[in-house]
Amino acid sequence: MTETVGTGEVRPPAEAGRPAAEGPPAAPRRVEFLDVARALAMIGVVLMNVTVVVFSAERAGERAPDTVASAVDTALTLLMSGKARSMLMVLLGVGAVLAWKAADGRGERPFALMLRRYVSLGLLFGLPHLLVFSGDILTHYSVTALVLAPLMPVLLAGGRSRPLVAAAVAFAVAPFVENLVPLSGEWALLLLLVPQTLGFFCVGIWLARRPELDPERSGEPSRLPAAMVWTGLAGQVLGMALMFGSDLLFPMEFGADGVPVLGPDGMPLVHPASHMFTSAAGTLMGLGGALFYLGLVWWLMRRRRGTARALGALAPLGRMTLTVYLGSTAVFLLAMGPWETQIPMLAQYVLAAGYFAAMLVFARLWSARFRYGPLEWVWRMITHLRVLPLRRRPRPRPVQAG
């Protein structure tokens, strides 16, 4: 999201002698790759949400799954599950760096701006969304970003590998926090998953510090996108190996009747170490998927061929992903009806495809006339504590000689 999962904007430093609070923030130079990647990540997240905003007829047990629906669901799950959200988290880390540097360049206090940015995101958008959809990501991301804020000066200083070290530490701590901290319940997940999410943010900070993301150097040759693709594939393979290893080392307990032994919570009894292996495997597969997709999109965008032009058409969608994300929940809930009518899974995916087709047209028309998406504009004004212009200035017509 332009302001939800990061921003694709790179702002020039404030002009010498100009007060930081004078006028709106300087006009940004956008990194198209980030906008496209953000759009694809949001498409993946919404596709994973569509069948759980209100359970599909198949998952509610009201309809037997057919072959086509099962094939589509399996393919989308393999392609997107965990990977889209991971990519979104990495992009949020990128956006945090760009927003921090932009505020610093304007002479503002980046720490205070980051606090306002994510407190307002969580309170105004995340919590209300969480009340209608338990799978909301905004509230959790806001909490994690507030943990990240005091660490930003440290992560932006020193060698470029520092954020990767911080990510490794966060990922190593995450399984212990998730499985050993005595918290339970839906709201506890907002806190228990903070270390893992913080690790993904730190990977994004590392990426934002790379010189390849400088718009002035975007055309220079680089091996980084290809390296991200191969590293991402390796991460997914290692994660799957760890998952299978967990099943071999810590098999599920079965009773004499061949039924899994259940614990007090009604869930199958599993060795505690198995949970930690599974958590680590999920992190590796999610991070691998995020690096793979980001690297692939980046590599394709740099080739500047037909595929790059096709991907570039998604950029307007990536500039208003807060609007797209919250709008999708509203559309899906309205489509299901006030009585939560169950509809077939395949119809839900068709609904999601139609929603994105309509939003892509809307985003292109809106972006041609306005600077920010509707909700992004509201969020920016709250973050910057002043009214910001929304409508784009008309381009001056060239004066013809003679």
Quick tags:
402 residues, mainly alpha, two-stranded antiparallel sheet, 64% helix
Characterize the structure shown.
Helices cover 64% and strands 1% of the residues. With 402 residues, the chain is an all-alpha fold. Helix 7 packs antiparallel against helix 9. The N and C termini lie far apart (47 Å). The N terminus is likely disordered.
Averaged pLDDT: 84
Considering DSSP H and I runs of 4 or more, what fraction of the residues is helical?
Answer: 55-70%
Q: How many strands, which pairing sense, and closed or not: the largest β-sheet?
A: 2 strands, antiparallel
Q: What's the total count of β strands? A: 2
Number of helices: 16
Task: Note the beta-strand portion.
Answer: under 5%
Oligomeric composition of the shown chains? single chain
**Broad structural category:** mainly alpha
> Low-confidence segments, ≥5 residues, pLDDT <50?
1-6, 12-24
Order of helices and strands: EEHHHHHHHHHHHHHHHH
**Strand order in the largest sheet:** 1-2
Distance between the termini: 47 Å
The gross shape turns out to be globular
Rounded to an integer in angstroms, the radius of gyration calculated over CA atoms is 22 Å
Explain the layout of strands and helices:
Blueprint (H helix, E strand, L loop, with lengths): L8 E2 L18 E2 L1 H22 L13 H14 L2 H23 L4 H23 L5 H11 L3 H4 L6 H19 L8 H4 L1 H15 L15 H26 L22 H32 L2 H7 L2 H4 L2 H16 L8 H25 L4 H11 L18
Antiparallel strand pairs: 1-2
Helix pairs in contact: 1-3, 1-11, 1-14, 1-15, 3-4, 3-9, 3-11, 4-5, 4-16, 5-9, 7-9, 7-11, 10-11, 11-12, 14-15
